[in-house]
Amino acid sequence: MKISLAPLQGYTDWVFRQAYEKCIGGVDEFYTPFLVLPNSGEVRTSHKREVEPFLERNNRLVPQFLAGSIEEFQFFETYFSELGYKKMNWNLGCPFPMVTRKNKGSGLLPYPERIKEILETGYSGKIDLSIKMRLGLEDKSEIFPVLDAIKDFNVDEIIIHPRIGKQMYKGSADWDCFEQIQKSFDKTIAFNGDIETLEDYHSLMSRFPDLKHVMIGRGILKDYWLPAKIKGIDVPSANERKLALRKMHDEIFSTYSSFLSGDTQILQKVKPFWEYFSSQFENERKVYKGIKKSGGLKKYHEAVSFAFLQNVKE
Ligand SMILES: Cc1cc2nc3c(=O)[nH]c(=O)nc-3n(C[C@H](O)[C@H](O)[C@H](O)COP(=O)(O)O)c2cc1C
């Protein structure tokens, strides 16, 4: 079974992924949050950092991109293959109106002909392609014509997050529709969505025993040892976990400090990290509140010390 870390823009950046790999481990494959091609034709520095430095240390990273045109698709295939990647992931799932309005992310799902055209003309096959997608933008019936449009292309894997775009993150993942897809489509299909505990994982596997790849996002951010639990690897003791969490935090903090300038910029990065990181601790609300309201680095470090006085959760 492959367990991959889902991309979460703002949370699973290269700083996080690198620290997780070093201090925790257990994830088989990482995906970058999506890269976009700005009008300038030049990839943003923050996006370059996602794919350039991490590569040297980890060949299990799959870069993800948004593309709504042949040109964008071609740009990313060339860019990633020149960087030496063997795989790339096309995002057909992003539900945010700023993206879907431009017919990208899940905004491209109502246009299967366009998807076909992009693959036909844009994809040269230099590197393997996987596609991460929702069930549709407005309706879950949209996925079937899309699957039909891509069935004849050399697509390595489809990762399904079974919600529609307009749902955002509301409601629950639609296992019935996932089952229908699995039955009707003969390419490799991975599952993503709402797997937060070992019990969730076991229920998923008892319904879909053929799955070979489960992608997990928020579940891992809330419990760093979820991949270990799934794989039956011994979970360290509470004391060891606390030490690993401390190391993880310090690694993240020092990496951000090494390239960001000023307390404000650093706090802007580490505070969102605690939105999920605080879930590892008992008294998580109080822990997060302390971090959130810390106005400067001194107060921040006090809030961090308070957090590490708490017990870590099982
Ligand atoms: C804050 C946030 C940012 C996200 N950013 C991305 C992204 O850049 N690319 C992507 O494919 N999915 C993105 N997602 C979706 C997740 O990868 C994943 O599909 C979704 O959270 C469901 O999986 P989970 O329940 O295991 O977290 C994001 C989700 C959230 C909550």
From TrEMBL:
<dbReference type="InterPro" id="IPR013785">
    <property type="entry name" value="Aldolase_TIM"/>
</dbReference>
<dbReference type="InterPro" id="IPR001269">
    <property type="entry name" value="DUS_fam"/>
</dbReference>
<keyword id="KW-0819">tRNA processing</keyword>
<dbReference type="GO" id="GO:0017150">
    <property type="term" value="F:tRNA dihydrouridine synthase activity"/>
</dbReference>
<dbReference type="GO" id="GO:0003723">
    <property type="term" value="F:RNA binding"/>
</dbReference>
<keyword id="KW-0560">Oxidoreductase</keyword>
<keyword id="KW-0285">Flavoprotein</keyword>
<comment type="function">
    <text>Catalyzes the synthesis of 5,6-dihydrouridine (D), a modified base found in the D-loop of most tRNAs, via the reduction of the C5-C6 double bond in target uridines.</text>
</comment>
<keyword id="KW-0288">FMN</keyword>
<feature type="binding site">
    <location>
        <position position="161"/>
    </location>
    <ligand>
        <name>FMN</name>
    </ligand>
</feature>
<feature type="binding site">
    <location>
        <position position="132"/>
    </location>
    <ligand>
        <name>FMN</name>
    </ligand>
</feature>
<feature type="binding site">
    <location>
        <position position="64"/>
    </location>
    <ligand>
        <name>FMN</name>
    </ligand>
</feature>
<protein>
    <recommendedName>
        <fullName>tRNA-dihydrouridine synthase</fullName>
        <ecNumber>1.3.1.-</ecNumber>
    </recommendedName>
</protein>
<feature type="binding site">
    <location>
        <begin position="217"/>
        <end position="218"/>
    </location>
    <ligand>
        <name>FMN</name>
    </ligand>
</feature>
<keyword id="KW-0547">Nucleotide-binding</keyword>
<dbReference type="InterPro" id="IPR035587">
    <property type="entry name" value="DUS-like_FMN-bd"/>
</dbReference>
<dbReference type="GO" id="GO:0050660">
    <property type="term" value="F:flavin adenine dinucleotide binding"/>
</dbReference>
<feature type="domain" description="DUS-like FMN-binding">
    <location>
        <begin position="5"/>
        <end position="286"/>
    </location>
</feature>
<feature type="active site" description="Proton donor">
    <location>
        <position position="94"/>
    </location>
</feature>
<dbReference type="Pfam" id="PF01207">
    <property type="entry name" value="Dus"/>
</dbReference>
<comment type="similarity">
    <text>Belongs to the dus family.</text>
</comment>
